[in-house]
Amino acid sequence: MSVLEKRLTDRSGNKCELCGYEHDLQIYQVPPTSEGTLDDSIYACKNCVDQIEDPEKVDPNHWRCLNESMWSEHLPVQIVAWRMLNRLRSEGWPQDLLDMMYLDEESLAWAKSTEETEDEAEKIIHKDSNGNILADGDSVVLIKDLDVKGANFTAKRGTAVHRISLVWDNAEQIEGRVEGQHIVILTQYVKKTK
Questions:
Q1: CB of 30 within 8 A of CB of 43?
Q2: What pTM value is reported for the model?
Q3: Of 60, 86, 178, 180, whose Cβ has the fewest other Cβ atoms within 10 Å?
Q4: Segment 176-187, tens digit of pLDDT
């Protein structure tokens, strides 16, 4: 038994730190910061590890155990609990647990670092009228005349808008400056320029 395994065994009481199962235990190093230390590893059963590593094998009911283990005083256990609850949040009950969980900024960044935290369908992607993906700082050209609400002018077709910013919660809106005015523009009326 390695020093790490001995320390994890002592910390966990020789049980899976996620579900409490006492057999088929192994060290699971929590990606991506794993250096094989007590601070970035958990002691978990094969069943939990298999489901963590392969989303196709996930049994949502198995993870009801997180109701307790999410309160662990050990950060790597909290990180894995947060990731699994996040993966399962469409089930309903995990969202309630996520709402109760608190991770400081640094820990939350670690929890989110596996890029699994949002379903592809939930990611907000801004696209121009031709389907090109827009990013903060891009330049676009208006493809039709737009009446600017609250200002007494029309933004003309062909007007360039430089250094746009994306409206983070709405894929159909960007912001930029036209004739010195900061305005919101619908992405369907712009074309990205190189």
A1: no
A2: 0.60
A3: 180
A4: 999 888 899 999
CA-CA distance, 15 to 89, in Å (whole number)? 26
How many Å apart are CA 55 and CA 50, to the nearest integer? 9
Same domain, 91 and 186: no
3-state secondary structure of 127: strand
In terms of residue numbers, what domain contains 153?
138-192
66 and 13 in a common domain: yes
Q: Contact 166/121 with Cβ under 8 angstroms? A: no
How does pLDDT run across 149-159, given as a tens digit for each residue? Answer: 877 889 999 99
Supply the Cα-derived Rg of the chain in whole angstroms. 24
Claim to verify: residue 107 and residue 142 sit in the same structural domain: no
In a domain, 117, yes or no: no
pLDDT by residue (tens digit) across 74-133? 999 999 999 999 999 888 899 999 999 999 999 998 998 876 544 544 567 889 999 998
